[in-house]
Amino acid sequence: MIDVTVQNFEAEVIAASMTIPVLVDFWAPWCGPCKSLGPVLEKLEEAYAGRFKLVKINSDDEQQLAGAFGIRSIPTCILMKNGQPVDGFMGAQAEGQVRAFLDKHLPGEHELAAEAEAQEALEHAATAGDDVHAVQARLADTLAAQPDNDDIRFEYVKLLVSTGQLAEAAGALAPALARIPVALRFEALGQWLNAMEFVANDPRGQWALEQFDEKIGENKRDFENRFAKSRVLIAHGEWTAAMDELLEIIMRDKKWDEEAPRKTFVAILELLTPPKAKPSTEAGGKSASGIELMGKSAVEEDPQAALVSAYRRKLSMALN
Q1: What is the pTM of this model?
Q2: N or C: lower Cβ tally within 10 Å for the chain?
Q3: What is the CATH number for 262?
Q4: Range list of H helices, 92-183
Q5: Is 31 a catalytic residue?
Q6: pLDDT tens, position by position, 259-285
Q7: Which one from 14, 34, 106, 159 is the annotated catalytic residue?
């Protein structure tokens, strides 16, 4: 159990809830029901052995936090996941009632073990360097055990596409593309796979860029060859050059080939977008829950994020 104030709220609640559910207990020293609920919560935190984290907020001392959560009576408990409140209850509850509340939201031991295995596989994929075969085998085994784990599927398909194992990538991607709606990141992988398959199977996939430029120089509206060139650039990892070529088509004909250039452009942006950083305890402003936090810091934008933002603006201008 940890006592939380506005100074450590971001670290102990928001950031912590990104990796483990956090149960926030709003209480006050004068509150009789709070005194009966508190020991129950502390007992269950110990009994659940790390499946959730308990924090306590004195609503008298931390009125800013209590107001931000709309606390009207105490005790009130709020369960936080991924930086957001997901459920809660008011008033003193018996141990059995609190257990039922927790069991509704907390992963079981089997799920925790599966999550740990998946996280280990992802971390191994990020740090294994040149050991591609080991990473691929680890991801394949984890995906076989957890076919609903989209993070593992995404990393596995991305590795297969990047190493040219296109048939295997198509097979692993198919279940994600069969869903409605298709998640954007899997749509992005599909577009990347399409480009790689084009280069592998179409004679133009072996053209030098100068051959495309010669054709396009003869006809600026030669969208077939412009689009083919963009796919070759994608296959070579020249993402910005590919987006520049796609923009040339979009600016001239937004609807060409059922908006294939726009869809491919959006896919590249998704593939280039860096993962979201976890909340920083040093940053000022508002937390993920809208709490005004103390302190100021200069936030430097990641160069990759800046590149993505710049090309998003270019696409918006081309579409308007």
Answers
A1: 0.62
A2: C
A3: 1.25.40
A4: 95-105, 109-127, 132-145, 150-162, 166-177
A5: yes
A6: 999 999 999 999 998 876 544 434 444
A7: 34
